[in-house]
Amino acid sequence: MAESPNMDEFMRHLQVCVEEARTIADSQEREQRLWQLESALQEAIIYKNRYEELQRHGIDPVRLVESELGQSSAPAPKKVEALMTGQVHCATCKAVLEADLDFCPACGSQKS
Description:
Elements: H1 7-21, H2 27-56, H3 79-83
Helix pairs in contact: 1-2
């Protein structure tokens, strides 16, 4: 059985689609399609870089964690938070802690 396509192959596919989209006759349709494809390429680049960065830090980028009974799942991180690594997080609320503060700016807990 052949291997599944990887991220580099997907990005090459999107680049081929960009070249094809440049031949669309209707200018409005062409611009809309190019915008969609360029946005998809940017997201693919961000994803690939984030995946590689997590691996370099020894973090499994695709580990799935199920919440324990009675616990609500944490909200998804914002894109800016997802791009930050190597930051210290609050033990209470998991917010990113600033190095120059002795407490969490989100919940007020003291740093441990």
